[in-house]
Amino acid sequence: MSDLDARKQSILRSVVFEYVTTAEPVGSEILSQKYEFGVKSATVRNELADLAELGYLEQPHTSAGRIPSDTGYRYYVDRLIVTREPESGTKQKVKGASEEGDALHTMLRETTRALSRLTHLLTAATIIRDANVTVRTVILSAIGPHQALVVLVLSNGHVENRMIEAPPGLTLQDLGRANDWINQTTAFKPIRWFAKTKAPQVNGSPAFEKLVSVVWNTLRSVSKEVTRSALTTEGEEFLFAQPEFQRDAGALTEILEALKEGDGLIDAITGHADQPTAVTIGKEHRQESLRQFSVVRQSFYVGENEAGAIALIGPTRMPYETSIPLVNLAAQALSDALTRFFG
């Protein structure tokens, strides 16, 4: 990502603000009329062209103005944003929602509802089940020339079995070495750890390396299954009201698909080890169906233990400067309430 001089930063910030507000492409004339850049309209037009060439802006139509690209939003969020703290009344609504009832699901439902109504965006939350359960042992067994069995035994006595495809050329020596390596690496690790951790690099025969990769991906899949709880969502109707989605029937279809594909949405909310940032924008999403959206997320805790995550989901044209503080506030309110009740 190229660094920008002060004038380009100011113009990019103004384009983001205008597009978030109006949902219409932004031209140089509008910017020159509303903002003091200290240069003529022609210079602003040239700067917009430069920003587009650098990848920070896009031009949806030949004669139209510019809109921020995913890269432009990322630069704005990382370097230009000035977050706006919620007003005292808003803070009270969010904190009050987290104190409604003494059950976790009730807290999540009330908090997501309050956050959605305050922002007019989709709000989603999920909790982590069995977050502190650890791996006791992993057993790999060959059951034929092309198949193997992975048996995962957890500290709570739960056992998971998965059939996997054995890589070509796998020997008993490879299998034994993989058993030893997997157990040395995974023993006593929290099952939740695998969902956010990439497979470490290993050295050996191609069959051994492939087997370790397949087993690790299997453990990640099991981890997500046994720790994942139901998704709580509020405010789907607000997404349908967004101008860009009303103009684009295909985008509406993708919204429906994203909501149906709970796994993809939960992954976007909980994040990944290689995507630690609390904001994921457009094409940064792994799931194709989510690439028209931005997700602002934050984890909440019981004491020091992660209990789940809450997020705002909307178009990339999202008011990040208010969305980020609100999500942080909601997560902190949930953490405080949960720690009081369960900590």
Task: Describe the fold and architecture.
The protein is α+β, with helices and mostly antiparallel strands and 343 residues long. The chain folds into three domains: 75 residues, Arc Repressor Mutant, subunit A (Orthogonal Bundle), CATH 1.10.10.10; 155 residues, Beta-Lactamase; 93 residues, Enolase-like, domain 1. The chain is built from 14 helices and ten strands. Strands 7-3-10-9-8 form a five-stranded antiparallel sheet, sandwiched between helices. A hairpin with a 2-residue loop joins strand 9 and strand 10. Helix 5 packs parallel to helix 14 and helix 6 packs antiparallel against helix 14. The longest helix is centred in the C-terminal third of the chain and has 23 residues. The protein is globular, with a radius of gyration of 24 Å. The chain starts with 5 loop residues before the first helix and ends with a helix.
